[in-house]
Design brief:
Alpha-Beta Plaits; 4 helices; four-stranded antiparallel β-sheet; cyclic pyranopterin monophosphate synthase activity; Probable cyclic pyranopterin monophosphate synthase; EC 4.6.1.17; elongated; MoaC; 170 residues; Mo_CF_biosynth-C_arc
C-alpha cells in the first residue's frame, strides 16, 4: 500500500509489519518523518477482446462513444481517488498521470504512469488507474462481447502489474 516502502529494503518480517499495531488492529503508516521525494510508478494490464471489438475500439466505432477517451478519464479519476478505495492508503498529491493504449489483434494494453512528490509511493495509484481504465473499456464494449447466453467467453482482464517504480531525492 502507499506509505509502505518495505519493498525498498530487505523483505519484511512479522516484526516489521506496519499496517497493524501490537494488538493486531489495522493502522495507517505514519510517514510524517519521511523526506519528500519525487516518485513515479507505471502499471500496465491488458483486456482480451474479440478481434472485431478491438478493431471497433481502434476505429472509434463503438456505439457507446469514444472508448479510449472515456477509459482515460476513468483511469485518471481512479488514480486521484485511490486513497478512498484502498484501506490505509495515504492521500497523495498527484503531479502527473499519463495513459497509453497499445493494440494487438485481440488485446488492448493500458499503461498508466503516475508521478507525485511526497513521502510515499504511487504504485497503488497506477494499479488502480489500470484496473479502472480496463473496466471502463469492458463496460463500453460489453454488448459486443456478450455471447448468446449473456456471458463473456472471449473477454478478460489480465496481467495487471507494476512495471516501473522510481524514487529520487529532491
Amino acid at each position: 500500500m502507499s506509505g509502505d516502502d518495505s519493498e525498498d529494503g530487505p523483505p519484511a518480517t512479522d516484526a516489521d509489519l506496519t499496517h497493524t499495531d501490537e494488538s493486531g488492529e489495522a493502522q495507517m503508516v505514519d510517514v510524517g518523518d519521511k523526506p519528500d521525494t519525487a516518485r513515479r510508478a507505471v502499471a500496465r494490464g491488458t483486456i482480451r477482446l474479440r478481434p472485431e471489438t478491438v478493431a471497433a475500439v481502434r476505429n472509434n466505432e463503438v456505439e457507446k462513444g469514444d472508448v479510449l477517451a472515456t477509459a482515460r478519464v476513468g483511469a485518471i479519476q481512479a488514480v486521484k481517488h485511490t486513497w478512498e478505495t484502498i484501506p490505509m492508503c495515504h492521500q497523495i498529491p498527484i503531479t502527473n498521470v499519463d495513459t497509453e493504449f497499445e493494440f494487438a489483434e485481440d488485446v488492448i494494453e493500458l499503461s498508466v504512469a503516475v508521478e507525485t512528490t511526497g513521502k510515499t509511493g504511487c504504485e497503488m495509484e497506477a494499479l488502480e488507474g489500470v484496473t479502472t481504465g480496463l473496466n471502463v473499456v469492458w463496460d463500453m464494449v460489453k454488448s459486443a462481447e456478450k455471447d448468446g447466453d449473456g456471458n463473456y467467453p472471449d473477454t478478460g482482464i489480465e496481467s495487471v502489474e507494476v512495471v516501473e517504480k522510481t524514487k529520487r531525492e529532491l
